[in-house]
Write a sequence for this structure.
């Protein structure tokens, strides 16, 4: 069985040898995922207790912004949007 | 499919607001603009290594651009674009990755920030890697999804950094 974790990317922000920035010091190493409905990348907060946005249409985690839209209009992935853009470009529309 | 890397050895980015503000030439590490109206490019990895010699909070953003750049595109000092595989054939319509433009300058979208890579350029390091199939895509060469820029947002005191962006064009 495939796990959703296969979608995870990786983010490292290392201030081990730096004073860091306000609110972020030390070393952050976290999984990320790319919302399938928009190109945004979400850094997974391990302390989050609310459920993450999930789209059963594309079987993918999505960001909170797109989850609100999905609840009203359903699934439309970013790849479908890009296909539409290419289609329009090819047709010269 | 050809993986390429656009890199800059050292640059001190200029903090620039999103919206209707030009990203001035050679004040940001890179922009990626599709080489044709139907080209798709995946951004696979971004690395930023701080080179400042004193504390320099630097609020780097990868974002789509509300205004895409136009005109002749050239590379700034220390900036270059190279294939990761020496056997790669040159693209018929190469992705435009220089940070200097002859006509319109890129303007970062105020609503399509894709990655916030804030860090302190005094010894800080940022590295983001997409999972296979989860890359950030730019498609076509028109606003907003046809171009993405890596640049500094307002705030902090941006310091010198080196950077690379690895991308693959379909």
């Amino acid at each position: 069985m495939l796990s959703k974790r296969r979608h995870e990317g990786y983010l490292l922000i290392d201030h081990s040898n730096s004073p860091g920035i306000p609110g972020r010091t030390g070393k952050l190493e976290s999984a990320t995922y790319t919302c399938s409905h928009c190109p945004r990348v979400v850094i997974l907060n391990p302390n989050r207790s609310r459920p993450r946005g999930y789209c059963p249409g594309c079987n993918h985690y999505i960001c909170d912004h797109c989850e609100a839209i999905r609840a009203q209009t359903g699934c439309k992935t970013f790849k479908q949007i890009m296909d539409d853009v290419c289609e329009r470009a090819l047709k010269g529309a | 499919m050809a993986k390429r890397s656009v890199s800059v050895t050292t640059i001190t980015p200029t903090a620039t607001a999103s919206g209707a503000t030009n990203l001035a030439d050679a004040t940001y590490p890179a922009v990626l603009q599709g080489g044709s109206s139907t080209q798709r490019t995946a951004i696979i990895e971004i690395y930023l290594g701080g080179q400042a010699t004193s504390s320099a909070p630097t609020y780097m953003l990868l974002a789509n651009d509300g205004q895409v750049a136009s005109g002749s595109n050239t590379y700034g000092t220390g900036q270059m674009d190279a294939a990761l595989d020496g056997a790669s054939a040159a693209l018929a319509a190469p992705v435009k990755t220089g940070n200097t433009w002859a006509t319109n300058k890129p303007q970062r979208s105020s609503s399509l920030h894709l990655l916030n890579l804030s860090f302190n350029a005094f010894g800080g390091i940022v590295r983001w890697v997409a999972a296979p199939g989860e890359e950030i895509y730019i498609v076509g060469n028109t606003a907003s999804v046809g171009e993405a820029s890596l640049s500094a947002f307002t705030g902090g005191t941006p310091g010198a950094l080196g950077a690379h962006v690895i991308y693959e064009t379909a």
Observations:
- Chain A touches chain B through 32 residues (CB under 8 Å).
- Residues 4-91 of chain A form one domain.
- The helical segments of chain A are 64-73, 78-91.
